[in-house]
Design goal:
The protein is of the alpha/beta class. It is built from 11 helices and 10 strands. The strands form 2 sheets. Strands 4-3-2-5-6-10-9 form a 7-stranded mixed β-sheet, with helices on both faces. A 3-stranded mixed β-sheet has the order 1-7-8. α4 links the parallel β2 and β3. The radius of gyration is 18 Å and the shape is globular.
Length: 280
């Protein structure tokens, strides 16, 4: 991993930010943003394939559960779900909305569960991008998964048109972007919240993420891209744009759906959707 030096307090920063976002997260990111609705629709398609198709058994960890959207879908299907998040406010909302029955406040780099306990781990919503010590998180996920267990997750891609825009605009380091493009190394950058507080985010290359999975005993079952062609629209505009931007994006989604499963197109997507399985 390449990037700037990080404060050891990044976990508390992330926790504080998502505590603040908890009351409005779903309204802002799921209802008001066409960009994020498209992401979640793609996540849900794969979710149904695996959790409606009998491929996964009973015990599931919703890692980075937030306010419990995916916990709710899992419980409706009869799964026993533990919802883990670093944000207490998000878990409180999850419980009050009767989505979570087993909430746990904790950190992904030190999971409070015994070895091999879960049949599957779901980490939807760019969870691993928010964990600077990602290798430790993958190690812990591998530990708590039983042999043959599934890990379903999405991560934001460093080497894509949208990150090129961000490099030019100062959202990510130009040096970090170019290093990822040339050598395949990831980069730690920053996202600034409304209070202008710097929140560390880790951006991955496909080479890096596949290497991590292999190192911790996972094989990739499927890999898809989200926002493959539609990422020609900078996400800064796409996320909150309406009118003509929304119409153009809707047209591009048609091509996204065709290209998302095919090389080389899926490797330049803004987001990777990865289904992996722990080897026996």
């Amino acid at each position: 991993m390449e990037g700037d030096d990080q404060s050891s307090s990044y976990e508390s920063i992330v926790s504080t930010v998502y505590d603040e976002l908890a009351p409005v997260y779903e309204r802002v990111f799921l209802r008001l943003s066409q960009y994020y609705r498209h992401v979640y629709n793609e996540l849900y398609e794969v979710f149904r394939d695996y959790f409606d198709g009998g491929k996964i058994h009973s015990k599931v960890l919703d890692l980075g559960s937030g306010t419990g959207v995916w916990t709710m879908f899992l419980r409706r299907r009869g799964y026993h779900v533990i919802s883990l998040d670093i944000s207490r406010a998000s878990l409180t909302k999850c419980v009050r909305s009767r989505r979570c029955s087993d909430p746990v406040q904790g950190d992904a780099v030190k999971l409070p569960f015994k070895d091999g306990y879960f049949d599957a781990v779901v980490a939807y919503g760019s969870v691993f991008n928010h964990i600077v010590r990602t290798e430790e998180a993958f190690r812990e996920v591998s530990r708590v998964l039983g042999d043959g267990g599934y890990l379903l997750f999405d991560v934001d891609n460093l080497v894509c048109p949208d990150m090129a825009y961000e490099a030019l605009l100062g959202g990510v380091s130009i040096r970090g972007f170019l290093r990822g493009l040339i050598s395949g190394k990831g980069h730690v950058g920053y996202w600034y919240n409304q209070g202008n507080e710097a929140i560390p985010l880790r951006f991955f290359t496909i080479k890096e993420i596949l290497s991590m999975l292999s190192n911790y005993g996972f094989e990739v079952v499927d890999l898809r891209g989200i926002h493959v062609l539609s990422n020609v629209i900078p996400s800064r505009i796409h996320q909150w744009g309406g009118g003509k931007i929304a119409k153009i994006a809707s047209l591009l989604y048609v091509f996204d759906n065709v290209l998302s499963k095919h090389m080389p197109f899926k490797y330049v997507a803004t987001t990777f959707l990865i289904i992996s399985r722990k080897l026996n």
